Amino acid sequence: MTQETTGDSNGLPEGVSEASNPHARRESESADPQHSAALTQHSAALTQRSGATTTTDDVIESDADSSPTDRQEILSEDNSTCHISVMPDEVVSMLAEINPDVIVDGTFGGGGHSRRLLDSLENAKLVILGLDRDPEVSIRYEQNPFQDDRLTVFLGSYEKTPQAMEAMGVKKIDAMVLDLGLSSDQLADRNRGFSFTHSDSALDLRFDQETGHTAAQWLAWKNEKEIADAIYQYGEERFSRRIAREVVARRRKENAVRTVSDMVDVCRRCVPRSRNHDIHPATRTFQALRIVVNDELSALERTLQSAADWFRPGGRMAIISFHSLEDRIVKQAFREDERWQPLTKKPLRPSDSEVQMNPRSRSAKMRVAQRV
Ligand SMILES: C[S@@+](CC[C@H](N)C(=O)[O-])C[C@H]1O[C@@H](n2cnc3c(N)ncnc32)[C@H](O)[C@@H]1O
Asked: Which terminus, N or C, of the chain has the lesser number of Cβ atoms within 10 Å?
């Protein structure tokens, strides 16, 4: 059963309230995650999920002309996750060393990291608070709940950790895991616009489709310089100016970019094919647009500024990132904030066997720090 939360009328903290439909909470949320007050709680039980059959990078970096991957082909009938968790052994071993009582899984996704932690840690007092800002994660979790009352899942950004703690009567946490980016479930969903293979999809790219604006809207409203700067800054795309010029030219011709295939077409025209064909011409641009519409880097920065206050001394934070922009933010925060002692001088990387089994893991970098 899913609990919807919309106010403090039931004795829950401000920003945390109850209802039964995860979609109903939207009236109280704004596009800015900092100002979005609502947090939905799921205390349902969980079942074993089926295995995964696709990976993020497999699809996002595959050529749009190659054989499409369809959600129906990769998701099981019961809407269980198709996501394979990245570096689960490393997450468990780094956290098991401190025998945590309270763990926050701030990017719950398919729940793989939570599942592994619940299965591996023997602490009788263990409690896990899962958070994810994607309402589809809540729906999937409702349909495939864990049969484990040590876990409570909330619908909301990981920035809302203090509200989740308050709702659970938790004063301090011992550990937190952030596994950034998007999941294979989101990539496989043809209504989201994350995959090049779903060419007819609207260019949405939001983790939470009920708040904010789509990437297509953003491209329709911004000027050429703003578009170019964002694609350069967040995608590190050298051909950002050409791309922005083409986007704006199409707007003038009343042929604005609306779908995934529109955007892929713009990128194909503007970005020369890389010599070894290792990266699709639209990869960097889609990354940039996703970061922009989800305000991803700011959410991470704000969280890293506040998170030390949530931890007890000796607690550990493990963050898995998938591109250099995120990794730089994590590295700097752990180095420069004296409340954190970095435990990983260099980021941990997935093993060769993990990369072979799960190609999506190949760009993962995990940094861990201990609260002083
Ligand atoms: C890589 S997946 C996590 C997979 C998960 N660790 C597992 O093992 O199944 C990343 C998830 O983070 C979520 N996410 C992204 N930004 C978020 C934020 N600011 N707060 C909470 N969840 C977020 C996405 O919706 C997505 O479900």
From this structure: N
- The predicted-structure confidence for 168-214, as pLDDT tens digits, reads as follows 999 999 999 999 999 999 999 999 999 988 889 999 999 999 999 99
Q: For residue range 283-328, what is the model confidence (pLDDT) as tens digits? A: 999 999 999 999 999 999 999 999 999 999 999 999 999 999 999 9
Nearest CA to ligand 1 atom 12: 107
For residue 277, give every residue at least 6 positions away whose Cβ sits within 8 Å of its Cβ, in sequence order, or none: none
Query: Percentage of residues in the chain with pLDDT exceeding 90?
Result: 74
Residue from 114, 207, 302, 321 to probe ligand 1 pocket by mutation (most atoms less than 8 Å from CB): 207
Q: Cα–Cα distance between 83 and 188 in angstroms, integer? A: 10
Residue of the CA atom closest to atom 7 of ligand 1: 112
Residue 136 Cβ contacting ligand 1 at under 6 Å: no
Judge if the beta carbon of residue 130 lies within 6 A of ligand 1. Answer: no
Mutate to test the pocket of ligand 1, among 132, 163, 366 (most ligand atoms within 8 A of CB): 132
What element of type H or E holds 164?
A: helix 161-168
Distance (Å) of CA 62 to CA 56, 57, 231, 271, 324: 10, 8, 20, 16, 21
Q: Is the pLDDT of residue 62 over 50?
A: no
Q: Which domains does the chain have, with CATH numbers?
A: 2-47+81-184+297-371 (3.40.50.150), 196-294 (1.10.150.170)
